[in-house]
Amino acid sequence: MAALTPEVLLVFALVTVVLVLFATEPVPVDITALGLMVALMVAGPLSQQLSAVGLLGGPVELLPDSPADGLAGFASTATITVLAMFILSDGVQRTGIVQILGRKLAALTGDSETRQLGATMGVVAPLSGFINNTAAVAILLPMVTDIAHEGNTSPSKLLIPLSYASMFGGTLTLIGTSTNILASEVAADVANDVADPSPAVVALQDGFSMFEFTSLGLIVTVVGFVYFLVVGRYLLPSRIEPEDDLAAEFRLSEYLTEVVVREDSPLVGQTVRDALAETEFDVDLVQLIRDDEVFLEPLGPKTIQAGDLFTVRTDRETLVELLDVEGMDVVPEFEVTEDELERADPAAENLVEIVVAPGSHVVGESIASVNFRQRYDATVLALRRGGELIRKRMDHIVLQVGDTLLVQGTADSIQRLDDNRDFIVAQEIERHDYREEKIPVAIGVILAVVGLAAVDLLPIVVSALGGAVAMVLTGCLKPGEVYDAVQWDVIVLLAGVIPLGTAMQHTGAALYLADLLVATEPYLPAIAVLGLFYVLTAALTNVVSNNASVVLMIPVAFDTAAKLDASPYAFVLAVTFAASTAFMTPVGYQTNLFVYGPGGYKFTDYTVVGTPLQLVFAVVTTLGIAVLWPL
């Protein structure tokens, strides 16, 4: 049994703290990863000072070469490759090819839930093999929502399959997910440190090739499709009833009404901005109707006149007080409908759902703190978080990834929100800025990147960076858009957790965990230990970051395989696939959280739908590895 040294205990303590912080997210996960990186670098010098004054028995070194090893994540080929893939994905997205393909498929689905399900998964899975799967889900979310509405199907029936199928597709190629790219680099680093490498270890010294595990990816993708078409569709809830009218879907009738300003109202002569600033009521003025003309935001500069009709968002109790104090009367027989809220421009979308995107600058902020109304010239009418609908006192609710906001604004405001990378508009809207003439170029760039890496003419990091540059040189992307394309929180997360793998290996923490797993050998055959590895990694990934799971478990996989005299290749693949397929919780994978609000899901929906699938994948992946790459 490996020794439980002070270094091992300290690494385990750091891992425990980091996993708790990842799971509870009191601060963003990328900040936690940065803190981990700093802690690993500080431990050595700090312990030397403490031992010098007699407070410690001796120095504790967690990294062999600090700070070089601590900062290595920023120079890692995995980090740079993932950064380049974000740029490539954005270049493809801006051509509009995915939206065009989605619309063509949507036209074939009709009101058949089976065809809708098949089209949703059939588009996102292969797409996710070649562009970032979070980007794939973001691009296709409006299409899938529209398919559901047009086919009179609950979007809850399609959005979990959209997320899960993006994970299936991510297992098809090396570039399918950041997890695969990271696993390839961590495995190569560990393999190159093995003193007397076996042929299986040598096979990992250059990492994975582009299509190295595509055969297994195809197997799990087919199994995932069959699961949803045969079993999963009946486990999916209908949290959001299919409605043609967004006002009805968000049940706004109790919170929206129309009032008329009386001649004796103290508001007459004030601007809307001043009136809202002075009121103590929880109320929003949504739209103004004056002489049959409808005005939306910006309403602030408008001077209130007697006879003005305002659509207001507030609850019934507040409305009664508002009428008495502010000199207004309720307009009888006002009906809250989407058409009524789009009177300003019936030919355009004025009422849409927007989803807070991963990496958004508004995460951790509130509607008030980001000055949403003033910044975007739009009004938030309701907020949906999972299955919870919030229609009052929303201004100070801290926003999270996946929160869905029902927003009213002018066509220009909606267009600006759609162009803003902080949000995803959850319905297809008219837009004219796709670079459709660049579609052949963007496809050619992606094919060149994949082809050059697949035939080993260039390392994947070089071909991906070359492709990113080509996207700009060919006009698929403008230079200023390159930085917006990158999810910097993911890049910082990768850079921060990579040194943990080095610490696990250097201190012997990985060897200690391997000894614990190998202790099951008298009771379990090697293939069962392989399956156990999959289950443990999947369980970890469903609670914390998938990238952290890879960094934590791959060094353990090598040591376990060595002690079992088994192929480390098989164990590394088990970790890679398990970390890429987290189905049991909304926090297990970024795409799960992304569809949480738009689908109106509860936390337990993921457990009900995902647990059987996770168990099926554990068996299929373990057997598939054992057959394709014998232990």
TrEMBL record:
It comes from the Archaea. The keyword Membrane applies. The chain crosses the membrane at residues 68-88, 216-236, 441-473, 516-537, 569-589, 609-629. The keyword Transport applies. It is a multi-pass membrane protein. GO terms for biological process: potassium ion transport. This is Di-and tricarboxylate transporter.
